[in-house]
Design a protein that fits this description.
- The chain is built from one helix and eight strands.
- It is mainly beta and 95 residues long.
- The longest helix has 8 residues, at 62-69.
- The chain is elongated, with a radius of gyration of 14 Å.
- The protein starts with a strand and ends with a strand.
- FE2/S2 (inorganic) cluster binds at residues 18, 20-21, 23, 38, 40-41, 43, 56.
Amino acid sequence: MVAVMRTEEGVFGTNALCRHMAWPLHWGGKIKDGCLRCPLHQSSYHPADGSINEWSPFPLFPWYGKMLGKLRKPSSLKTYDVREIDGYVEIDMKS
Ligand code: FES
């Protein structure tokens, strides 16, 4: 599964499962402050390179987020090369 998103910087493609606990990011994932944010525990990633912005901060109960964050080693989302031509988006699945 690939998540395709548009930010102010362009169109990007990443793996569609959160690296924290594999929540499908298309179920409520949002772009906020230029980052893709998982709705479950609020981990966020930079769309351009998939790197982590925040890992399981879970602002509602930060102590709980911190505990959950330790269950899995932080890791980045895989990214795919994406280009937009005449309104169509192409994703290089080999990248
Ligand atoms: S599953 Fe996405 S932050 Fe926990």
